[in-house]
## 1
Amino acid sequence: MFMAELKANNISFKYNGTNEWILKDLSISLKDSQVKGLIGESGGGKSTLCKILAGYEDYFEGEVKIDDLNTNSSKINPVQLIFQHPEKTMNPKWKMKRSLDESWEVSDDILEKFGIKENWLNRWSNELSGGELQKFSIIRALNPKTKFLIADEITTMLDAVTQVQIWKLLLSIAKKRKIGILVVSHDKELVHEVCDEIAHLNDINHV
Amino acid sequence: MSFDKERFKSPYSFLFGNMNLRTKTLLIISLVGFVLLAIAINSFFINVDNITTNFAIKNSQPSLQHPFGTDWMGRDMFSRTIKGLGLSIVIGGLASILSAIIAVFLGLSSTLGRYFDHAVNSMTDLFLSIPHILLIILVSISLGGGISGIVVGISLTHWIPLTRVLRAEIKQINTSTYVKLSKNFGRTKLWIAKNHLLPLLIPQIVVGTILVFPHAIMHEASVTFLGFGLSPHEPAIGIILAESMKYLSNGSWWLAFFPGLSLLIIVLLFDLIGDNLQKLLDPTQANE
Ligand SMILES: Nc1ncnc2c1ncn2[C@@H]1O[C@H](COP(=O)(O)OP(=O)(O)OP(=O)(O)O)[C@@H](O)[C@H]1O
Ligand SMILES: [Mg+2]
């Protein structure tokens, strides 16, 4: 029995000013607590789908909706997207503390779990490594109101140790909070390791 | 190809030596700023009524006592000029700030939606199609002349460049991932404007404001010179120049020459500050 489900029904999409369908008649769903993998070749439209699911694209055909038994009326989007390149998701004129606060008041215990050092909070985003920044963007996405996480190649540029650390944490937090995760990755091993179910973009995209 | 440092040495290198660009820019800004401030403050303490009329020395040529000469009433032209420049700077300041306020307001409103954007765009086109001087004269006359008429007239004609810059900049920031993310975190447009946009726009706003100064000063002087601006009782450069026209034919060249030249120098100094501030705040755009 699940409490909430993210559903994308019959999505078709082309980028503004182009004539080529990137996605055609695509349907996918994600239940809470579910960890679903999405794989497919490069340029197939995985990142595009992620943006549509998280509300970053306004104009597409079809619908994205959330069936939720607890109707919550918060303004925060319960679907949060984590990007491959975290540096673009931080205001360059803000210190890290402010970037976190924009989403929610992060507890010390989460900061500790992710190994965020106290003094990193007072740095500018260009004074942190890609891995350190990615930890920030993951924590930021873990707003208490978040129901679904779309993880688009979030550990692709990290070393193996950090990858394992991040996924372990993310999975345990998701389990506790009943968050559903869509894992997009080229790393088949990772996808098989963490996901309950795997979708191939080619199978669901009818371009 | 290697950069020939010697050959491309700045003509001012004898002044600044090997200081780095940032220090040099800061130095220029503070020096020029100091000069302008000194003029403004000095002029504040010059009381026009105390510039004594002394017919014994009327129309005398520039000398050590009277570096800018005296006029047909024997008044010291140097004091009159400084007083006039002070007034110019005050009017320039008020007009620049007012036009910057208009620009920020319009720039930010253009992000509120497509209709707002359209309205701002049409307004820009409308004001671009009216000649500046004409509009300033019209506004100035309809507001009964005086300082407020001139200030409003200049502001109404000088918000366009900054508005355009801000609008383009805002568009770009609004498409950035961190702004979209902010919306996803439930932040309102107003919150985003205040926290993301405004801080990133401050450099443009500061530079844009300063760059209006020279225009404002020139326009005020010319409109006043033409008789549509400040009243003849004001100690303005435009008034001085208009008066001196009558005496040019009898050879009193200094009556127009020094006030005119000083005005030009003030204008160039403001330009210098604006350009250097731009370099300092936004090094990537300095080469445009
Ligand atoms: N902003 C854009 N404008 C136009 N076309 C775009 C835009 N972004 C992506 N595309 C195109 O859409 C297609 C799908 O891109 P997308 O990034 O979704 O693929 P992907 O499956 O995530 O690839 P990868 O595995 O390499 O990350 C590509 O052909 C790409 O060139
Ligand atoms: Mg991708």
## 2
Amino acid sequence: MSDVTTPTEEWTKPLPTPDDVNRDYWQAGTEGRLLIQACPHCGHRQFYPRALCTSCAGEPEWLECTGRGTVHTFTIVRQMGMRAFRNELPYVVAMIELDEGPLIMGNVTDCDPESVRIGLPVEVHFINAADDVGVPMWRPVPAR
Amino acid sequence: MDRTPVIVGTGLSDYPVAPHLDGVQHHVQATQRALADAGIDKSTLDGYVGVGGSGGMMIDDAVTMAEYLRIDHRYIDGTMTGGSSFEFHVQHLAAAIREGLCDTAIVTYGSDQLSRMGRQLGTGGFQRPGQRVAGPIQYEAPYGNSLVGAYAMHAARHMHEFGTTSEQLAEIAVGVREYAMLNPHAMYRDPMTVDDVVSSRMIADPLHKLDCCAITDGGGAIIMTTAERARDLPQPPVYVLGAAGAQTHWNVSQQVDFTTSAGAKAGPVAFARAGLTPDDVDMLMFYDSFTITCLILLESLGFVPRGEGGPFIAEGHLKRGGRWPLNTDGGGLSSSHPGMRGIFLLIEAARQLRGQAGEAQVPDCQVALCAGSGGWLSCIGVAILGAEHP
Ligand SMILES: [Zn+2]
């Protein structure tokens, strides 16, 4: 399980919508767990959650991730109109390559944006955007 | 009957700043000008193709515009792949004309984006604050990526894998600006250097302000028919030699490889249909939403080996007088980018192939390649056009 933060102020960023396919994914986030899908028929792993395996069209199952990955590519956003984000400029938006394979988008937090590099090892943490929505975020793995 | 598909008329509406026109009026003005250019009556049209781009209050999707223009069609296509829609339309329309599904069709586009929304689009975020988001975008929207940021992620990865530099990308913007200086309508016409580009404000690393396209108003229309009918019309016909399209993803977080594009699949199909190779191409019209878009199109379409685009561009091969002059109207980077630019690629290529490009004319221009990029380097449409009957 990873850190889960419940912010004191209201979530003003766009809010995801749990539905029949992704409800477990967003709920798991509130419990500090990152889920992707794995196919019991062909072994294919995928993100984002879908009602079918994109490889064989079978029904996928959930796979709990280690919450570790590396920065595959990223940008430092320095101009953004929406106020909820403007207050946080500059910030990092990255594609994280999970140890389990798939790519997932997220912010890299808890570090100087200028220090982020492709290949940087990162670990997941979560911010509760709503009771049933835990949004995964990423931070550099602390040096040991 | 020679049913080889040809472009026989083109029209541009007023650009880059046209506060007197709304989105639909851009469609209308471009339609009127394309009909005049082609020398045909509106009643001749039996096909309508288009894609809504105006947004806001103006509804301009294909069925609405076919009604508004009152085109009594027997063929309609409203394929929407973002900015590349129009290259996909040429692919579809070429097949439809060959097959006899229609004889003479018009493709239209219009947008009042600048006058209506201002310049914040590329960094305005995808959604309104606090709004519920559903569907695939909900796995991106909470992170505040911008349109510029989505392309910046491609640039960052290309730099990481191949050592591409900001200066090499800047050469693209500088070369296109040199052509914009020859276009009296272009949005930006001041001389510009590589240093100007790399010292301009960073919007989303590693893309600077001057790596990004303009935001403008504008619209365009093209009329396609058979080579047979073109014989009686005033303009030199522009032949569709080959067209193809492909898709790798839609939302940027589903991109499979951030250093290439679906052009790697569409390009060979279009070239095979045309019976040509990149060596046969005289000029390029690429969708230059950002400098990196051009670099990835150049490589994925096979004009240079993968990873070698940066040094190749720095040698000046895409500039005026170079091996493959790029975006001779001044492109989206300096001339016009009204939301979806794909139709302007076709219109400028036709101007070059007709030999009507004035000071910007590419000498002995026989073959032009148009490559549209829609979404976030998601859907790539390729149209190879020629001055000679294939
Ligand atoms: Zn499967």
